[in-house]
Every structure is written in structure tokens, then in C-alpha cells.
Design a protein that fits this description.
The chain has 10 helices and 11 strands. It is α+β, with helices and mostly antiparallel strands. The protein is globular and about 60 Å long. The mean pLDDT is about 95.
């Protein structure tokens, strides 16, 4: 069995050795922000991807659930990797390796055809099932208020206004569907014009708006053609819902606070900009 690869503890390395008696680590694809290690390995059966979570990680359980319950339509069409092995307790999973270039920083990131595919893929993912969650809005509001209690660089006057805004929101039942949770070009691959999807560490049952927010505050800014292509592929535009303002506000708060904690300055600035835009329109 190979020596323990970087980022895996002894138990994870031992389990991986049972899954793959022979392998070689050829690339470390980890982002370096969260306690998640992502390795490309070569095996006699072809390339594979190993993902391992650290002690405080809570993303691997979400990823395993997504692979087991929701990625089927994408896997069947060659748009997502097939799960090979997984152990939620060990925080370890093994999948196929998907060919393609990361869309982020690639010319495909500016191509409307990419976003039309992304919208169509997302529509299939969302359409698989739905549940009515009577407490989603209340929990989401409480989480935003909790973020505001922690460390951040949001101006005190803005914090007070945000708290007042949240206190006045209705909390209706929400229709929740399988969401990717981080739907943007850094989690898409392009291969000879075909879009594929990676990283399900934030997947969960949420309102569909969750998968529109990151694009709306990022790639769609100044590019209405990309937004139009995406909604054309998706088949509708959930951003017209009255819940959109609540979604954007909560997303701005979490982006500003989370990124301050982890030192991701670009995302922090995006979150602060979103907060300013929301408050300007309040």
C-alpha cells in the first residue's frame, strides 16, 4: 500500500488503501481554504478523485448524500462523476475523474452557450423532487443574525439596518429542491463544448434561488446576455419571486462574514457590495 497521501489522516489513508490497493497521487486539487483535501490519483482502472475532510469538516457528508440521492441524472448523461466508494464517518469518498478544463478563468466563462447549458443542467437537478419546509425561512433568518453577531467588517449602522430588515420579513413555507449550493464557473468543467459539474460539498434541499445567487452577484454583473442565456436554459427566472430580496440579503451577509473569517478578500468585497445594494433599495 502507498504511504499516506497529503491531507489524509491515518484512518483515511488505511481505508483508501483498501479501496485502492495500487494508486499514485498525481495532482493536489484542493482549494486550500476549507478542511477538504482533493487529490487526483492514477490507478490501474484509470484516474480517480479522492476527497477527504478534516476534523471540523461538514461538507463531505453533504457531498456523499448528493452523490447517493441526486446526481443520478447528471451521471447518466456524463455530466457528473460516478461515486465509487464513500464513508461518511471517515469523511472520505472516491469518484471517477471527469475530463475537462475548469470554466473559471477560461474563455468559456464569457460564452453565453456555457450558461445556457448550466441553466438546463440545473433545471434537471432541481426537478427531481421537492419538499415544503415550514421552518426554512426562520432558520435562514436566524443564521444571518448569527453571522452578524460574529466577527466581520460590516459597518455598525448597516448591521442595525440589516437586523431591522430581517425582523420585518415574513416567514412563509418554502418549497425546497436539491440544490448544488455553489453554482458558478469554478465548479464547472468544459470539455469540447460539453459542460460538467463538480464539488457537491454544499448540496442540500433549499429553495431554487440558492443556485441563482452566486451567478447574479458575480458573472451576471454587467453581462445581461449571460443571465438571459442561463434563464433560457433553465426555463424560468425564480429571481422574480418576492423571496429574492431575502435571498440576496442573507447571501450578502454570509459572504461578507464567512470570507472575513477565512481571509477571502475578493468574496468579502462582493458580500459588502451586495449588502450596500440591498440597503440602498430598502
Amino acid at each position: 500500500m502507498p504511504s499516506a497521501p497529503p491531507g489524509l489522516d491515518a484512518a483515511q489513508a488505511e481505508l483508501l488503501g483498501r479501496w485502492l490497493p495500487v494508486y499514485e497521487v498525481v495532482d493536489d486539487m484542493s482549494w486550500g481554504v476549507l478542511e477538504t483535501t482533493v487529490l487526483r490519483v492514477e490507478t490501474p482502472g484509470g484516474p480517480r478523485v479522492v476527497k477527504a475532510g478534516g476534523p471540523a469538516d461538514h461538507h463531505l457528508a453533504r457531498e456523499i448524500r448528493a452523490h447517493r440521492e441526486w446526481t443520478g441524472p447528471w451521471v447518466a448523461g456524463g455530466r457528473a462523476a460516478r461515486l465509487i466508494e464513500a464513508d461518511a464517518e471517515a469523511k472520505l469518498l472516491l469518484t471517477e475523474y471527469l475530463p475537462g478544463r475548469l470554466v473559471q478563468d477560461d474563455p468559456a466563462a464569457a460564452d453565453p452557450a456555457t450558461y445556457e447549458q448550466a441553466g438546463a443542467l440545473l433545471a434537471v437537478f432541481h426537478a427531481q423532487t421537492s419538499v415544503v419546509d415550514g421552518t426554512f425561512e426562520r432558520r435562514a433568518n436566524a443564521k444571518s443574525l448569527s453571522w452578524l453577531e460574529g466577527p466581520h467588517r460590516i459597518a455598525p449602522d448597516d448591521v442595525a439596518r440589516l437586523r431591522a430588515l430581517i425582523a420585518g420579513w415574513p416567514e412563509p413555507p418554502a418549497v425546497c429542491v436539491p440544490t448544488h449550493g455553489d453554482w458558478q464557473p469554478r465548479n464547472w468543467l468544459i470539455d469540447e463544448g460539453t459542460l460538467r459539474v463538480i464539488d457537491f460539498g454544499r448540496a442540500d434541499l433549499r429553495p431554487p434561488l440558492e443556485d441563482f445567487e452566486r451567478l447574479d452577484s458575480g458573472e451576471f454583473v454587467g453581462r445581461p446576455d449571460l443571465a438571459a442565456a442561463f434563464t433560457s436554459g433553465y426555463g424560468s427566472d425564480p429571481r422574480r419571486s418576492p423571496a429574492w430580496q431575502r435571498q440576496r440579503t442573507r447571501a450578502g451577509i454570509s459572504a461578507a462574514c464567512w470570507s472575513f473569517r477565512f481571509g477571502v478578500r475578493e468574496l468579502e468585497q462582493r458580500g459588502l457590495r451586495m449588502i450596500a445594494e440591498v440597503l440602498a433599495g430598502a
